[in-house]
Design a protein that fits this description.
This is Putative oxidoreductase. InterPro entries: NAD(P)-bd_dom_sf (IPR036291), SDR_fam (IPR002347), SDR_subfam_1 (IPR023985). Belongs to the short-chain dehydrogenases/reductases (SDR) family. GO terms for molecular function: oxidoreductase activity, acting on the CH-OH group of donors, NAD or NADP as acceptor. The longest helix has 24 residues, at 167-190. With 286 residues, the chain is α/β, with parallel strands linked by helices. 40% of the residues lie in helices and 13% in strands. A 7-stranded parallel β-sheet has the order 3-2-1-4-5-6-7, with helices on both faces. 51% of the residues are buried. The protein has 8 helices and 7 strands. Helix 1 (17-28) packs across helix 8 (248-259), helix 4 (113-135) runs parallel beside helix 5 (167-190) and helix 6 crosses helix 7 (228-235). It has a single domain, classed as Rossmann fold, CATH 3.40.50. The chain has helices at residues 17-28, 52-64, 79-93, 113-135, 167-190, 213-219, 228-235, 248-259, and strands at 8-12, 32-37, 69-73, 98-101, 144-148, 196-202, 270-273. The chain is globular, with a radius of gyration of 18 Å.
Amino acid sequence: MGRVEGKVALVTGAARGQGRSHAVRLAEEGADIIAVDICKDLDAIGYPMATPEDLEETANLVEKADRRVVAVQADVREAAQLRAAVEQGISELGKLDIVVAQAGVAGMKGEPAVQAWCDVIDTNLIGTMNTVQVALPHLAEGAAIVATGSTAALMDVSKVDVPGKDLGGVAYVFSKRALSQYIHTLACHLAPRGIRANAIHPTNCNTDMLQSEPMYRSFRPDLEHPTKEDATPAFYVMQAMPTPWVEPGDISNAVLFLASDEARYVTGMQMRVDAGGYLKWYDWHI
């Protein structure tokens, strides 16, 4: 028996990166998958989104794990699209037990700046809330919700050097912080129903979001067009352990634990998979 054998999991942002990794890892441990992704570029986000072919490849990988999959192109910013995707998945797979709200974008250096702010907030925060709230009517006792935050949400950003300089970047931090508060409150009030909700906070993760020019420019603002080679030494600053980033599979292992019955009494957790990044910002406290 797999660790999530017989369960059905909804994964947003499933076409590539962390989302694909989560979908495949859950499938390897016995879950059927509803895989959702927008598969369309956003004009104010400075790197390409996943493609329909990427989502198809995720579906192929789930099927190779001998699990069923319903793959749907849908925009998490639009609750109606997401609701239709969830209902389609449930009609084919029979139920819903696990929700992984993974879809997210980074708007660092995005232009137009106001649109970058809106795209990030609408995807990372509103998209997460849409994902959870269209799923809630279908969740029963024992269900698990996992949302992706960021170590950036836990950092002290009270001292802003130039207000308004990078609206898309600020939106990323704010959206992940607000998402964390949402999950905290949600977990408290779903606990009597036996439904758990947790957030995972990755540090730099080796995905297309990280490996992009806008992110390279955020870490190397001294260069006009920094490359991966230019940015990689700077990526180490985020972690206490000697690594520039973690891998999607490192996050998927945490998702699997929180989604499984091994974590049946774990709820309201702000779980860090950050190679000690948080430790560089805060002293010990309860």
